[in-house]
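User: Hi! I'm working on a homework problem where we have to compare a predicted structure to a textbook description. Could you give me the structure for the chain below?
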Amino acid sequence: MKLPGHDAIARQAGEHLVPSRVKLPRKAVERPIRQVAKRLVMALVVLVATAFVVYADRSGYRDNSDGPVDLLDAFYYATVTLSTTGYGDITPVSDGARLINILVITPLRVLFLIILVGTTLEVLTERTREEWRLNRWRSTLRDHTVVIGFGTKGRSAVQTVCATGLKKEQVVVVDPSSKAIEAATAEGYAGVAGDATRSEVLRRAEVHKARQIIIAPQRDDTAVLVALTARQLNRSAKIVAAVREEENAPLLKQSGADAVITSSGAAGRLLGLSVLSPAAGMVMEDLIQQGSGLDIVDRPVVRSEVGRGPRDTEDLVVSVVRGHRVLGYDDPSIGKLQLTDRLITIVRATPTEHVAPHARPLPGD
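Assistant: Happy to help. Predicted structure tokens:
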């Protein structure tokens, strides 16, 4: 696959621009339309109750135009009274009617105004509250994880990272699809709707303050441009990217990615391994699913392990990371473990929803 040049990629990205915006996870609250509808119903109930109170005591009221007060006059009086208009054409004349106005009609008028004013204030302050929440989120966000693309790869990647202990509040998803952002916020992640190849969109995701960036778009050329832009904004973040074609992996590394995963190649190798040995394929599938069965863990060497060999530790050591080199457990250059080393080990995780490989039947059993 031959990738287009930088200018061509930028033109392709510009053809499908989506206005970028930040969307934070929302708490379970009613929709604004439903809240307004409920308050309108409450206001109507207060209006009807006031009208029937007046009609029940209609003998204590006088209509200056035709004398007696009927049901229509009662509703008219309730409307102009609760809205504080007060034309004065219908007035309470008896002591009882005036007492009812003091004890019943006036409190109902106050309640009516509270309902209407409260609805208005809530609508007017909704944007202010959202802006305050967004500013507070930006000021407290540090060393977070940015996920570019919330498709199958991006969703699986963020679930794996969160399974190791990362809080959902420390994850920001960037995707051009508003539906994908809604799905991300529904799961508890903050989302930025927009084209991740544009630097202003990545700035909204606070990429310049991120600790790690996961790039998992649908296209390889998009991944290259995102990696270039992200690396320009953040020189120290760890960038991991996925590509479909293996021939594009070197180009992505040159663009600033620290690690590149070839999705099609990895899936093909797992398929081949499963053909040769279904049991081995099941074990490998379990290893890449964090949180159950067997997990691959990257941990530092503890003081009690210093001076010992990789096979002398309690955990099953697969590799030793020394400096920028990854050495196999049987590499003679390892010698004795050092305090600055890191170990790639296989450990038993606490089973949750997944079933460990040893407890699952092999295909055909």
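For your comparison, note the following. The chain has eleven helices and 13 strands. The CA atoms of residues 81 and 109 lie 7 Å apart. Good luck with the assignment!
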